[in-house]
Amino acid sequence: DEFLVPLRNFRKRIAYANAYGTDFQVPCQTAAFLNDNSGVCHFLIGARCLRTDGGLDENVEEGAERKRCDDLQADTGEEGAVPPFVVAVLRTDKQSQTQSPRNSSRQNAASDDLLQMSQSLDALGWTKVFVDMRDSIPVPGLRKPSWMCPDSLDDLIKKREEVSDDSEGEGSDEVKNKSLRTSTCRMLTSQDLSRSTAAGDSINIPLGHTVMVANSKSEVYKQMNFQGRPVMDKLAHDIVMSLEN
What we know:
alpha+beta; five-stranded mixed beta sheet; two-stranded antiparallel ribbon; 9 helices
């Protein structure tokens, strides 16, 4: 608990994580403290595969996780409007009490500790930004055959939205039911996120971390990682906006 107290003192908390296996220094599961056994709900705020009105972008092809919504701008303030390098933005609600792992054998003690850590951090309330640096890594990736491509976070969000759209009906009760279904479809668990961000549709040299933080410790690094500057610009923008609000 001594490590949670300092974090709890902040009014807002934000975490950036590299999706799709591009970061060996701080993998996505670590950066966003996800766990395959955690059912903590994450609420979708925005995603690049959504229109700015919150609906699906009809131009997103099946399995096209690399959709680049160049017309979406983060500073529009509209739901779903995110930069093209952001896969999705989600939040967790503050919880007064975290779910405790079930009693288990000593053999599973380590996994229980990781689960407890994940749930304890999520209970503080976070905004999590999942970014995709594959197109920014200086070494091109190798595209996987379709049968090797897992369902990505882009795909998962798209499928959830399609379920919500297909459930649309008429009448006040139906409107209420649709609103409830939409809210449910826009909730992703820690397990959902862990599995859908673990790998993508290409094999990349995992240099995403140094690119994401726009590491410029030398002129060579500066040239290699310059495409990460928009990510850091967004983070700076988010910090300033949170202070103003």
